[in-house]
Amino acid sequence: QVQLVESGGGLVQAGDSLRLSCTVSGGTFSTYTMAWFRQAPGKGREFVAAITSSGGVTYDTNSVKARFTISRDNSKNTVYLQMNSLRHEDTADYYCSLVSVAGNYWGRGTQVTVAS
Hints:
Elements (H helix, E strand, L loop, with lengths): L2 E5 L2 E4 L4 E8 L7 E7 L5 E7 L5 E3 L8 E6 L4 E6 L8 E8 L5 E2 L3 E6 L1
Parallel strand pairs: 2-11
Antiparallel strand pairs: 1-3, 3-8, 4-5, 4-9, 5-6, 7-8, 9-10, 9-11
């Protein structure tokens, strides 16, 4: 059974950085496309970034490109989201997702709060 556990969220000031981690257990991590989504208070869940098994990356260019970086360490079964120059509007619950043909698997999320 695949399980995803996020960590690294917290309360920061505008302009600060955070690195989120998501560790996956079960399955073969190196073969998965992994993604980060976020959900701000009162809003729907939105795509942030994804990384394929071969390291190809995609970002939501409207909001996070050039500030956020997604990466993975297959030896640790972990995907990361480095977030720099955080803004108040980045405040959200951040969710890790494993993308598969059978559907997405989700973690429980980690909360990021950016004080303005």
